[in-house]
Design brief:
mainly beta, binds zinc ion, single chain, 1 helix, five-stranded mixed β-barrel
């Protein structure tokens, strides 16, 4: 096993663990005290984000402090899974053995319906690349990527 994380988000959200057979599974997000609610909900095909109890702002990725009012009173809440496509990119480079037979594939950023400006990075599925347009309506879809890993993706609504 190997693990890694980006320098800016150390120990919070982007830490991943590469499974033993890396060609069979993508890097797996590491569930921790702060992110467990998110992964538990995804496993049940629900999308939950942290929401500030003080001002109602959604906070994503999960953090301990509201970036709008600095309250630390945050709680998970289910969101609709609907939004619009803010941006996208076609990935042509293999960054991990799992993706060797999957390029090209599309990743994107979704503006959350409940609060535009709160954005969810994600994989984009069920749409040809030349059909994508920024601003188009999108909806979440959950896929069992491996027998033990469910991930949220977005597709045109
Ligand atoms: Zn707040």
């Amino acid at each position: 096993m190997s693990s890694g994380c980006t320098p800016t988000a150390k120990g919070v959200w982007s830490q991943t663990v590469s499974p033993f057979d890396a060609s069979q599974s993508p890097p797996v997000p590491e569930s921790n005290e702060l992110t467990k609610f998110y992964w538990d909900a995804v496993r049940e095909h629900r999308l939950e984000l942290l929401r500030c109890s003080g001002c109602g702002h959604y906070v994503h990725y999960p953090r301990r402090i509201c970036d709008r009012c600095l309250s630390m009173d945050l709680a998970p809440g289910e969101v609709s899974g609907r939004g619009t496509l803010y941006s996208y990119s076609v990935i042509m480079h293999v960054s991990h053995p799992y993706f060797a037979d999957k390029i090209p594939y599309v990743i994107g950023v979704i503006d959350l319906e409940e609060e535009p400006g709160v954005r969810i990075p994600t994989g984009i599925v069920d749409c040809a690349e030349d059909q994508l347009r920024c601003g188009m309506p999108m909806e979440v879809v959950f896929k069992e990527v491996t027998p033990t890993l469910t991930l949220p993706f977005f597709r045109p609504a």
